[in-house]
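Now for a typical sample entry:
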Amino acid sequence: MTEEASTSPSLWRHRDFRRYLAGQSAGVAGSAITSTALPVLAVLRLDATAGQVAWLAFLGQLPPALLALHAGALADRYPERRQMVAGDLVSAAALASVSLAGALGSLTLAHLMVVAVVRGTAGVLHDAAAISLLPRLVDRSLIQRGNSRTGTLFAVAATAGNNLGAALTALLGPARALLGDVASYLFSAWCTARIRMREDGPARARKTGMRAEIAEGLRYVRADHRLSVLTAVNAATSLALALLNTLWALYLLRELEMGPTVFGAVLGVGALGAAVGAWVAPALVRRYGPGPMMLGALALPPLTQVPLLLASPGPAWQAVIGAALFLQLACAGAAGTTQRSIRQLVTESGMQARMQAVSLCLTSGARPLGTLLAGGLATWAGVRPALTVGACLLVVPFLVLARSPLRRLRHMPGDGGHPAPAPATAARSGWKGSMEEGPA
């Protein structure tokens, strides 16, 4: 950890944190441009069917499922910044090839699928390192605040990216709009390369086999009930959202007849909800405790799908869908920053990347299953029934947390005189590790 991190109580005076945040926020904004432009490119320009849209999403999500554990082990072994920069540069090159092919009139769905695989591979290398870097970048007492501010700024960046993506798609066409994401990846790589934190230490010196380090990370997460329950919640949420998100663009653009500009605006409103949720998460945790707050945040998303299932074309329903997405992502922002902080606070430094990688592996593994399920259900029963199944699946993560002692967690680990157990002790104690809880 840098000396600056330990002496300054303000995150905004932390130079390396500002560089980290600027680079990652630019990447989020760029990805939002792609999330707006790519569906338009596939559905409206290349006439992709529901099955082809599902396969495109499946191929993009397959690399994280297969490579997350290896990426986490690499990030615990080697400097995170190098891994992040490499991932950014590869992603930039892949998306630039789409814009070039579009300009030459030679773009195909097969090209998009290859790019999805390459970008997914580069993304998992980057993300495994980026998520594990924050706990070493800032002081332990600032982790929750850091996650809250990061989540807020990411959501604001996503809002700006969605709106910019809609504008670029309308002005330049969807293929050229992807150049905005290319620029964001290059800026992210530049900011990351300028971080000056020290990256040596005991964890860097250990060079056991890759397979042994991966197995150690799996055992570590399984042995701590907090890590294992939150990882299960993330995986269940990921499966449901993968099904919903695979058909979301197709449903809005084709069946509800949204134009690209309105589609981008709806995504932007939703991202603004994520910003609000992430910003208010620390206050909600102080008032209700992290367990009850996360439980409430998981209870609302299934209800937010009801307007989507009842909607028909028209401006009134577009506004209702935007409001429902705002609420859904506000819940996601609040719960997401809180559970990430808990996992980071209870995990020792040398295990951060592997702990995150186990979660990423399971959540990423659930996504391809969700996309294939979406494609099969949409082909067999139709898009709206498939979305109904996705809405029902959103109840599962709520039930997982509701059946866990974590639902009564009243303090963040290390807060209010309730220190987190030493990670090695937590690993040995298995499912009966200590936890500060309030009354039921």
About this structure: Residues 1-8, 200-205, 416-440 have pLDDT under 50 and may be disordered. The CA atoms of residues 231 and 359 lie 5 Å apart.
